[in-house]
Amino acid sequence: MIEFSGVVKKFRRVDALKDINLSIQRGQQVALVGSNGAGKTTLIRCLLGEYNCSGSVTIDGLNPREHRQQVLSQVGFVPQLPPPLRMPVGHLVTFAATLCGSDPACIHQVAEQLGFDAEHYRHQPFVKLSGGQKQKLLIAIALGRDSELLVMDEPAANLDPEARHTLFSLLAQKQKSAAMLISSHRLDEVAPLVNRVIEMDCGAIVLDDKVAELVELSSLLACNISMIRHEPAFASALSDWGFSAAGSTTEWTGMVAGPDRLRFLGMLSRYAGLLAGIEMNEVRESGKREDVA
Amino acid sequence: MKQLYLTATSDIAESLRARWFSVYSVVFGGIVVILFAFGLSESRVMGFTGLSRLLITYIQLSMALLPIFVLITTVRSVAGDREAGIFEYMLSLPVSLAAWFWGRFVGRFIVVFLPVFLAMLGALVWGVIKGSEIPWTLFVYYTGLLMALVWCFLGIGMLISTLARSSDVAQAAAFIVWLTLLLFLDLILLGILIQENLPPESAVAIALANPLQVFRTATMMLFDPQLVLLGPTAYIILDNFSQSGYIFYAVCYPVLFGSVCAGLGYLHFKRSDLP
Fold first, then answer.
1. β-strands A29-33, A54-59: how paired?
2. I want to staple A24 with a disulfide (CB 3.0 to 4.6 A). Which of A2, A56, B29, B255 is the partner?
3. What ipTM did this prediction achieve?
């Protein structure tokens, strides 16, 4: 589906991309990782036809620069930093939907699934929304249409745990039909979402590896956490994950999205000295539970 | 066409919420209010009184303020949008580059021209209410001149925005362009050049090529048809163009100049990196 062949991009004397050769097929979810200045954004911009480059970039055999409308109508893009658009939410949705030939109602529906009522904020300028709301709307615009390629830059960075779970479920629905390119500074942020990892450094690909698909994107974990004693900071962190106290202030229960388990355990590790017990059970669709921790 | 319309309306929606637009509208609306408040329509200069006198003053002030306003706000918002990542996102949507560029041009033209025109129209409506005589010819001609002025400097602004990679550079370039055009007015550098024995043909060529001078002469022509204020240069203009010919030139040349600048800007935009 995506072919990079001998792609070189220079900014004056700096080589931002050095002879990139890369092929991505439908059904592949690719994590594009690397430090700042590694070339991730430049690669994405070349893919979207926003940068001129030497070599060739094609999506389904078409050059995105020369066949902009044909190619980009199949691409859903979520930038890392939401653009400071002053236009109202309703106008942005109509603008994007009309250009992409999709139904604004689909975008509204996805936004609502993510916990953002786009209809309610119809007259609100996009720039006045909170970071999470902006992210949700941009994700809704990217997913609320028949895109065959999803290009996302840290898509879950500003989302609350519930919205993250919804995003993972929505991506799971697109797994078979679309290719995904998810860029991030940190692999642990995107590892659960992908089945292939491409690491970039100084404009070159330094690692191209497959990841075992052990975690279902739409899975959920029912968790019980016991504390040795009540600690407000820990309780606040658990509340942020949507947990609630069960009976006493030292017993907490809640749900964690399967692909988020690594992040959740990372949060718990900060309070390891306060933990008396952890129980995590994967909730299957049939309702059966399976111990994972 | 639908894409062009969408881009134009988006640009209008963006501009209406921008602070520069509020300042811009207040300045031009305020000028008319101030002119009325100071009783300009009641005074008489060179035989002009009432609304004609007010419109002549208004167009002179517009000529001084509009070019720099249009240049700075255009380059700030277009180059600023690129810097802020708006281009990166909006151009990831399937919009053609032609629709994006010209849609923004049209949207911005409407946004920049409308407050100036509405202020002038407001003055006219006030005149009708007060029972003053309405100078329709002057109004139509000034509307054409203002449209040409906005179009011209919008084209220059779009060209600068596409060439400069940052809003700071774009603003500095816009200011230098405006200053250069200003310096080559008859009262400043052109006058000195003539004093230093510049061939008259060259002086006239510079004056005819400088859109600011073209406007200055055209607006002058309305209250001074023989261009007495210009001195001997008036003979060359009137002999070669005639009065109506020059008025036609004053509207068409800036539109052509602005279109060529915008066209060059589009070609550069299409071929260069977009964000």
1. unpaired
2. A2
3. 0.77
